[in-house]
Amino acid sequence: MKENYGYLIILLITLVACGGGGGGSSDPVTDPVTPITVSLSASTNEAEVGSLITLTWSSTNAQTCSATGDWSGTRTVSGNEGVTINKEGSNTFTLNCSASNATSGSASVQVTGVVNRTNITDEIFSNRTSDCANYADNYASNVSDLTRVIDFEGYVDVEVFDTYCNLSSDNIPNHDFNDSSANFRTNVAEIDRVFRVQRDPQTASEISQINGQAWDAVMLNGVVADVKSAGCYKPSESRADADGNTEAGCGPNDNWMLIPLEYSTKFGADIHNAHVQPDGTYHYHGNPNAMFDDSPSGDGSPVIGFAADGFPIYGSYILDSPTGTYRKALSGYTLKEGNRGSIVEIYLLDPLEDSRNFCIDIVGSKASADTQRGLQAHTCYSYQGEIAVDQGFDKHRISEYEFFMPSFEVCMTFNSSDNDLALSVCNSSELQKFKFLTNGNIVVNSDPNLCVTVDQNDAREGGGGDPVHLIRELKIEECRESLSIYQSWGTRSTKTNTNPGGEYSGIYEEDWEWTDSGDLDECNGMEYKGEYGYYVTDSFPYIINCYKGEIDSSFNK
Predict the structure, then answer these.
(1) Is the four-CA dihedral 227, 233, 236, 238 of positive or negative sign?
(2) Residues 183-208, mean pLDDT to the nearest whole number
(3) Of 38, 149, 459, 461, which one's alpha carbon is 20 to 30 angstroms from that of 156?
C-alpha cells in the first residue's frame, strides 16, 4: 500500500507541472502600463492682447506632443515657446502627449487677454481726417440707461489694414441714453458687430438709394445710423393709427414713408435722436447731439462716423469762406407747398359763418350737379371725410393757370358779361386762365386786378347737412384789401387709401423735394478741399439720403 501512495504523489506532481493535463500553453506576459505626466505653465496669467508670453512645458514617458486650443501644431516633449495673445478674455493653451504602450496625458493653462482702452465717455471729437486709419485705437466708455438705471460698458476697436479698417463695437454709445423724453419700446442690448470701412472710397457711376437693407453708417462711438423708418401711410395695415399711419410693416416699395424725427413723438426717440430696434439695437435717425459741439474750429465740425460706402460723416458746422465764419451746413431739400393729393378743394380761408368753410362748388348736388348753372360758394364737404366731386379741382393744372374739375371734365370760365363764373369745356382760352397768388387771391390772368370773390351778403341755407349747408354767390370783383376775407383762398386735399391728403407737413419723405437750395447735394453731402463727405443737418434728410459710393457688404443687416 505504501508503494501505491508514492506513485500517486509523483503522478500528481507531474500533472501540475504540465498544466493539469490540459495540454495548453501558458498565458503571455504583459509589460506594465507606463503613465505619462505633462506640465504646462505660462509666464503670466494676464497679458495685453497682441503681446507675447512664454509657455513652458515638460513631460515624462512621452514620445510625441501636440498643441491645441489657442495654439496648434506638433511640439517636442519638453521646451518653451513665445506665443501671442490674440483675443480679449480667456485664451486657453493645451498640450496633449502620448507614447506607445503608455497612457496619454495633457495639461492646460489659461491666460486672460486684456485691452488697454482709451476712455471716450462723453468725448467731443476733433479730427477731420477722412482716412479711417487715423482713428485706429481701442476705446471704451461707461454710460447709463437713465430710465432703467442700468450701467453699460461700451467698446469700439478700430483696426487698420492696407485698404480698409475694421470697426468693431458692442453698439453701446459713449453717452447716457434713454432719458425722460424717450419712449423706447425695446430695451437696449449689447450687440457685437464688425464693419469694414474703405480707406479710399470712390464715387460710383450712379448714386445708390437707401433701401433699409443695410445700416447706413457707423459712428466713431460704435453706434449705427439707420435713418429711414419702417413706418408709412398704410391704412390697410392692422397696426395703423387713426390717421392711417403705421410705425412698422413698410418697405422700400411703399410710398409716404414716415420720417421718425418729424412724426411727432411716436417713434420714442431720446434726446440723441435715437431709439431701439426690436432686437435691442440702439440707432440714430439724426444728430446724435454728442460727439461734436457748437464751437467748431479749423475747417469745421469733425468726422463723427463713416457711411456704408466709406465716405466720412461730419458734424453740422462748415467754414463759410466768403464770410470767414462758421455756420451749419444747409440741406438742399425744401418742404413742398400745397397739398399731397392730386384732387383738392378750393376753400375760403375765413370761415365766415360756417366753421366748415366755403368751397368753390358746382350748383346742384355732388354727382348730380349741373355745370350749366355755373359756380357758387358752398359749405365744404371735406368734413364728411372726402372731397365732393362737384368741389374737386386738379391740383397740378391749377399751377398751369387752369381750374379743371376732372369729375365733370370742365374748366372754370370767366363770364365777363355778368362778372361771374361759368363752366365750359376746357379750351385754353384767356377766359379760362386764372392765377393763384401767394397771398391767396385767385385773379383773372388777363386782368390781375380782378379777383374771385364770395358775395358779402348773408348766406342762405342749402338743401342738406347737419347743421344745414350754407350757400353764397360767387362773382368776379376788383381786388381790394377791404374785401380780403372774401377774396383769400386756400387748397386742401383729403386722404384716400393711397394718399394721406392734407397739406405737406414734413412727416413723409414725399413731403420734401431736392431743390439745390442749400450747401449739400441730394445725398446730403458735398466736396470740400477735394474730399467728399456727408454732413449732419437740422432738417431732412438729417444725416444721409443716398450713397455716392459702393456700399460695403459688412453693413448689410
Answers:
(1) positive
(2) 96
(3) 149
With 50 as the cut, is the pLDDT of residue 23 above it?
no
Pick the closest to residue 304 from 218, 401, 412 (CA basis): 218
**Residues 222-249 pLDDT 10s:** 999 999 999 999 998 998 998 899 988 8
Last residue of a domain, one of 84, 114, 144: 114
- Look at residue 378 and give its three-state secondary structure: strand
Mention every residue, 6+ apart, whose C-beta is less than 8 A from residue 189: 279, 280, 281
Same domain, residue pair 412 and 548: no
pLDDT tens readout for residues 31-40 = 567 899 999 9
Q: How many angstroms separate the CA atoms of 145 and 123, rounded?
A: 18
The tally of CA atoms less than 13 A away on the side-chain side of residue 491 is 25
| CA separation for the pair 300, 531 (Å, rounded) | 14
Q: With a cut of 90, say whether residue 276 has pLDDT above it.
A: yes
If 0-12 CB within 10 Å is exposed, 13-18 middle and 19+ buried, where does residue 226 land?
A: buried
Amino acid at 337: E
Residues 349, 321, single domain; the answer is no
C-beta separation of 67 from 94 below 8 A: yes
The band of 16, judged by pLDDT with boundaries at 50, 70 and 90, is: very low
Cα distances (angstroms) measured from residue 28 to each of 25, 31, 206, 285, 450: 9, 10, 84, 82, 128
Neighbours of 3 (CB within 10 A): 6
Question: Residue 326 forms beta bridges with which residues?
Answer: 319
User: What global pTM score does this model have?
Assistant: 0.72
Which residue is listed with cell 423724453? 181
For residue 512, what is the enclosing H or E element? strand 512-514
What distance in Å separates the CA atoms of residue 154 and residue 138, rounded to the nearest whole number?
11
**Going along 35-127, which residue ranges are E strands?**
37-42, 46-48, 52-60, 64-69, 73-75, 79-84, 89-98, 105-114, 118-119
CA distances from 93 to 84, 98, 107, 115 (A): 11, 17, 8, 19
Please name the residues in contact with 324: beta carbons below 8 A apart, sequence gap of 6 or more.
none
Residues 194 and 67 in one domain: no
Judged by DSSP in three states, 304 sits in strand
Judging by DSSP bridges, how do beta strands 274-276 and 282-284 pair with one another? antiparallel
- Secondary element (H or E) of residue 398: helix 395-398
Nine cell digits for residue 353 = 359763418
Three-class SS state of 27: coil
Phi and psi at 348, nearest 5°, equal -75, 125
For cell 355745370, what's the residue?
371
| Virtual torsion, Cα 366, 371, 373, 378, nearest 10 deg | 40
Q: Are residues 101 and 133 in the same domain?
A: no
Tell me, what's the pLDDT at 385? 80
Domain boundary among 93, 114, 135: 114
d(CA 5, CA 59): 62
Tell me how far apart the alpha carbons of residues 57 and 541 are, in angstroms, rounded to a whole number: 62
